[in-house]
Amino acid sequence: MIRNFSDTIAEKIFHNQELTRKEIRSSGKLDLQKAYERLRVLHFSTEKDLLCAVSLKYHGLGGNRYSIDANSRRSPWRINFEWDNEELTDVRLVKIEDTH
To answer: Which CATH architecture is the domain 8-95 placed in?
Structure first.
C-alpha cells in the first residue's frame, strides 16, 4: 500500500486529479492513464506480486530504492519508491535521461 508520495504529479495521478498545464508539459509524453494504472497496481501489490509481474520490470536501484516502468519498457518514465515494511514510501515519477 502506498503510504506517501514525494512527487505531487504522481500523487495527483494516483488520486485521479486534474493536472495543471505546467504539470502536463513537464510530464511530456508520459501516458497518464498507464501511469495511473501502474500506481494502482503498486498500491495493491506486495513485493512478491511485483516480482511475479514481469511486465512491470520491477528492479532494485540500490539501498532500499526500487523502480517499475511507468509506461512501457521503451518509455523513459519510471515510478521509484522505497519499501517500509509492507508499505511504499517516497513514491515519485522519474524521467530517466539518456546518459550516452
So the answer is: 2-Layer Sandwich (3.30)
